Amino acid sequence: MSRMRLFGAALLLLLLAGASTATNFVSYAGKFYVTYPDTWKQVDFLSVDVFLNQGRSTKQKLEFEAAFAPSISEPWHRDVYLILTVDTISGMSPVKVDSILRGIETSFGPRQARSASALLAEIKPGQLVWDAASHTAAVVTEAATSAEDKSSLLMLRFVPEGVANFYFYATDSALAAEAHAIASIVASLSTEDIEAAAPHESVKIADAKKIENATSEDRPIPIWAPTSGAVIVIILIAVAARRRRKKAESSSN
Would you tell me which CATH number, out of the four given (3.40.50.2300, 2.60.120.10, 3.40.50.150, 3.40.1000.10), belongs to the domain 3-252? Predict the structure, then answer.
């Protein structure tokens, strides 16, 4: 069985297991919230901003809603992490969703229908899978490095206010170990009563001095950096899809 099939099987089994205590994150831009387990943490904005934008000009700054990683990870981007972004699209409709998916299909081929519980089971790298009931799409890519194999997982959840983009980047062992958390975070997205879901604790402030003294060797390359052809493909698709979304919104209006 391939590495991605093993990961998909782990997701399928663990998604059915009971959940531990968790914390909510509210996206006011997307008007939804997600829940992450107590074994994970939300990373403070400054640390993520510095990590993602290292070597980029101000005009190239990457926008994101939040970042999450296992609490035991030190640094936070060591093994597996999630970057959550939102594309706001007013009046999201089935027509617009289909237009966006058809745009992605031009690079990944026709979408493969899956149920939510089996969305990532036996998914093939470069294959677009889609669950119409939960409005969730997913694409996996694999990138070989000199150290060990890496995997990149992009999951899209369509919501009334646009698209929630879940970018996971990790070693294969970390993806398998955190399969339950990954599946549960994406599945937890809800647009109901977001004010009540808002947490009442703040994220810890970053150690600015520690960040300033960090060398480029201390920081692994972020998900958007061109480390391989496979990763470049998913970056280009994400960018192209975002442009198509904007175009679809304009034509629909």
Answer: 3.40.1000.10
